[in-house]
Every structure is written in C-alpha cells, then in structure tokens.
Write a structure and sequence with these properties.
Protein name: Holin
Number of helices: 2
Distance between the termini: 16 Å
Number of domains: 1
Strand content: under 5%
C-alpha cells in the first residue's frame, strides 16, 4: 500500500487545494457552489479510497 506522497489521495487533495486556493491566480472566478463542489468531490474520493484500502488491508491480514 502506497503512503504519503506516493498515494493518489495526497495528489487529489493537493490538486484540489491548488485549484480552490489558486483560482484567482489562474484567472478563474469560482463561486461558493463551485468551491463546495470541488471540496465535496475531493473529500468523497479520499474517504472512499481510505475506506477501500483499510478494508483490503483487513482482508489481506486474514490470509
């Protein structure tokens, strides 16, 4: 199982944070709904991946 900087969860969080925080620098005008949508997608992805990895780790430990 990849951890830290090698995980997709890290990169999804980093890119989502840059997209939201740096939107004005990139010339994007994000409204509150867009920011909430980006945050929801990233957080749902990260939570789902963590739950999946933990479930898989428990299954692997049984064998």
């Amino acid at each position: 199982m990849k951890q830290g900087i090698k995980s997709t969860e890290f990169w999804a969080t980093l890119i989502g944070s840059i997209a939201v925080a740096g939107a004005s620098e990139l010339g994007l005008n994000l409204n509150e709904a867009s920011v909430a949508s980006i945050a929801a997608v990233v957080s749902t992805y990260v939570v789902g991946r963590v739950m999946n990895k933990n479930t898989q780790a428990k299954i692997d430990q049984k064998f």
